[in-house]
Amino acid sequence: MSFSRALRNLITPPFVARGRFPERALDGIEAAIRAGESRHTGEVCFAVEAALDLAELWRGETARERATAVFSELRVWDTAENNGVLIYLLLAERDVEIVADRGAAARIAPDAWEQVCRAMEAHLREGRFEAGAIAGVNAVHELLAAHFPASGERANANELRDRPLVR
Predict the structure, then answer these.
(1) In CATH, what number is assigned to the domain containing residue 29?
(2) pTM of full prediction above 0.85
């Protein structure tokens, strides 16, 4: 575990996430998720954590591993077409990870997800948290709409929460 990584995580208290993503921002992200999901059968979830805790750091847990754990906790995998997607942001490290369920991962190349992450991280570096989140959500919607277009009775099924998780 690098000292600088541990320090960044240990000195980033939980209230930082709420400061970067106040209710107004969460409302905007939720609206973007809801609007985009009308265009495809996928499900998009958004989660922000201020920092890893000491136990996670001690185990050497990466942002990717934490994102995978949150994906499981939120049951993003529990969709009819296995096309749920989690956008995960670890604020202390300004790291964005996207975890896609097997249906979406089979159709959308890892490079496409990575491009969305890097674009969001560019917004974060500029302090544009809400804009970066919404841009990322919209980019994920574009990818899902191309591979899982809305049609028939599944067009508006909402299987997972639209409200971002902040902790």
Answers:
(1) 3.10.310.50
(2) yes
